[in-house]
Amino acid sequence: MKAIDTFNQALKNNNYNFCFYGEDIFYLDLVFENFKHQLSDIIDETEVIRLNAEKVSFQLIYDELNTLPFFGDKKLVIVENLLDLTAKNKSFFTEQEKKAFINYLMNPNQTTILALLINGNIDKRKKFTKELLKNVNEIKAEILDAKEINDYLQELNQPSQILTAKQIELIVALSNEQLELAVNHFKKIRALSETESITDDLIYKTQIKDLAQNLFDLSKYLIAEQTESAFSLFYDLMKVAKPGELIKINGILISQFRFFLSLKILIGQGKSNEQIANELKGNNSKPINPNRIRFASREIKRVSELFLVNVQRLLVEADFQMKSGSQDNQLLFETLLLKIINLEK
């Protein structure tokens, strides 16, 4: 994984100032735990100091950075929640303190390893952030593609080789490129392997789904006119939904059916899965996962472009009605599901 490779190389080069951040908190924690593990041979647990920038003064942080370790050659100072580096309108350091902090980073105490830990993204437009990044190793905990998840699961799979390479690829495909889902699914399969034979069918049955994947299932039921299954899944989602989440659910369905319609058109033009993956780029201009295309192609085979256009129209109308607050959202959504199921009829 790129983030882990980056800090390992920095440590080899005796670069000891780090800034860890990322929106995927599961991956950020995983990367940071790996970082601390790499240091466990050279830093005693008693030499790990954790400070919350929201609760302690700059002076305390500054003093800890410059204090020599008691029991070893080095110590680790972790500074959390330095929101001065983010887009949030909060500042814990004065301008003078920011300058002092940058000066420290330019000439750091060689017995101190500093790790800034930010849950979320940093704001690189800020002067303080720009100056800081010139003097630290920037570690953005971000999964770039499915291959990174695959590689990590392969590491977890060693040395026992519980799953085949193809089965790991299947878990990654089912995870919607989310590391947490993939890792939890792998651990579930590993536990089951003590009593059951691991098959592709078992992997499908034990899939751990997020909201988007549950809504993909809801889309399948709507396309297949499976009224009972669609409403059963909808009511299950409502049991755990937060207030106002129906608007989010409807928004995801709009995105999914827009994807279905684009896919249907491109398939009709005779495009290959590889060509479609490159044309329907996701966030950050990344090609769509080919497995997503394969799964979706199978589901939309039986419906027309006109059906998908009409579903899109109904969803957009429902979005407007929900946001206008003209009627009860759950009742509106239940009516919407019935309208979609009856479109083909």
How would you describe this protein?
With 345 residues, the protein is α/β, with parallel strands linked by helices. It folds into three domains: 139 residues, P-loop containing nucleotide triphosphate hydrolases (Rossmann fold, 3-Layer(aba) Sandwich), CATH 3.40.50; 60 residues; 131 residues, Zinc Finger, Delta Prime, domain 3, CATH 1.20.272.10. Helix content is 57%, strand content 8%. Strand 2, helix 3 and strand 3 form a beta-alpha-beta unit. Helix 10 runs antiparallel to helix 11 and helix 15 packs antiparallel against helix 16.
Structure described in brief:
This protein has 16 helices and 5 strands.
Please, how many helices? 16
Distance between the termini: 50 Å
Assign the CATH topology of the largest domain: Rossmann fold
- Our count of domains comes out at 3
CATH classification, class level of the largest domain: Alpha Beta
Annotation, overall tally of beta strands: 5
> Structural class per helix/strand content?
alpha/beta
The main pleated sheet reads as: 5 strands, parallel
Mean pLDDT: 89
Oligomer: single chain
